[in-house]
Amino acid sequence: MTTSGAERPPASPPEKPRNPLVWLLIAPVTVYRTVISPWLPRTCRYYPSCSTYAIGALRRHGFFKGLTLAVWRILRCNPWSLGGVDMVPEVGRWRPEPYHRPHEEHQAGDGEGRGAVNGPRTT
User: Fold this and answer.
1) What is the pLDDT of residues 100-112, one digit of tens each?
2) A Gene Ontology CC term for this entry (predicted)?
3) What residues does each domain of the chain span?
4) From residue 12, how far is each of 8, 23, 26, 32 by CA, in Å?
5) Could you read off the pLDDT of 32-71 as tens digits, one per residue?
């Protein structure tokens, strides 16, 4: 079995936060996601959604840094933002690794002539 660099190992189940302050911040976000969010239209400009990002940041980085990352993400989520993929950074970092779209392989015979530098050949 071969694996490509794009594949990720299966995600481990989310662990319960040890810090009670983290739990106190995750609880209202969870209530928002289950009670309020289903009644609102989907308008999130980022992936993952801001609530998912906030929970991930709090679990990964703890109370202070997780709260800072979550608040900064919510401030960036506005109508003038382009949005996009914005994952929670690894421990010890403030910014995530840049996201690169998976390369789509060119299929031969599609008639597009994408492989030619100066366009299709004419003889």
Assistant:
1) 777 765 555 555 5
2) plasma membrane
3) 45-92
4) 11, 19, 18, 24
5) 999 999 999 888 889 999 999 999 999 999 999 999 999 9
Specify the DSSP class assigned to residue 112. Answer: -
H helix and E strand count, the chain: 3, 2
How far is 42 from 99, CA to CA, in rounded Å? Answer: 23
Percent of the chain at pLDDT above 90?
42
Map 59-74 to HEC letters: HHHCHHHHHHHHHHHH
Cβ neighbours of residue 55 closer than 8 Å, sequence gap 6 or more: 26, 29, 30
Q: What value, to the nearest 5°, has the Cα angle with vertex 113 and ends 109 and 115?
A: 95
pLDDT at 9: 45
Measured in residues, the chain has a length of 123
